[in-house]
Design goal:
alpha+beta, 9-stranded antiparallel beta sheet, 4-stranded antiparallel beta sheet, 3 helices, elongated
Length: about 220
């Protein structure tokens, strides 16, 4: 198990963590904290003993994941209390290698259509990248959606795909949670994923008053 270090820089709430050769820096809103013991875990899709990125495209994605930042539900709870360290919102980060057989399958299909690799148009190459990123940050499925967004865009000047939603917690339609995940093409072989969950219900406790997109947009990614 690899141990990750999370450092502070700039403003009080700016935190940075290294993962898979990239630095993720978040200028977090007030109240967000860093977990005391941060562990980097290996991702190996298809291995039941490994952490998963939940990418259901039939290929074996490999890389690393870490859960560095959270919004405490009971920030004043003493360390011996059962709720100490519990959170109402959390960030998960991934750095994954694009499966070689996925790229090979895309290339072979394009050669069938266009005749040779050098004849593949740039527009098709962009569609292939968008498909990979959409698989890495797939649309949410829910019967209780309040608001939903699924789009290709740029993030830190890199190709990206965003899926986000506001979802009612139950059929009472009185409380919502916010979800958001952004897949970013870090280089031609690597995808980074920012996955954020914001919970807004409980008998008690504190809750982040923004949404998942606020946290995603607070993060920048740079190669080490």
């Amino acid at each position: 198990m690899l141990i990750a270090g999370c450092t502070s820089s700039g403003s009080t709430n700016e935190k940075s963590i290294s993962l898979g050769g990239y630095n993720f820096t978040a200028d977090l809103p007030d109240g967000w904290k860093t977990f005391e013991n941060i562990a980097v875990h290996e991702v190996n899709e298809g291995d039941e003993n490994s952490y998963s990125a939940n990418i259901d495209d039939g290929y074996s994605w490999k890389g690393f994941t870490v859960e560095p930042w959270f919004y405490p539900q009971y920030p004043n709870a003493p360390k011996d209390d059962d709720t100490y360290g519990s959170f109402s919102s959390v960030v998960n980060l991934y750095v994954l290698t694009i499966p070689a057989d996925l790229k090979k399958d895309q290339l072979e299909e394009n050669i069938r259509i266009y005749g040779s690799e050098d004849k593949i148009p740039d527009e098709q190459k962009e569609k292939d990248i968008a498909k990979i990123l959409t698989d890495a940050a797939p649309p949410y499925l829910s019967d209780l959606l309040k608001d939903y967004n699924d789009e290709d865009l740029t993030f830190n000047d890199l190709p990206a795909h965003l899926a986000e939603k506001e979802a009612y917690r139950n059929d009472n339609f009185d409380e919502t949670n916010s979800y958001g995940r952004m897949a970013v093409l870090l280089d031609e072989n690597t995808v980074g994923i920012i996955d954020v969950y914001v919970q807004r219900y409980s008998p008690s406790g504190q809750f982040f008053d923004g949404d998942a997109r606020d946290i995603i947009d607070s993060i920048t990614i740079a190669k080490e």
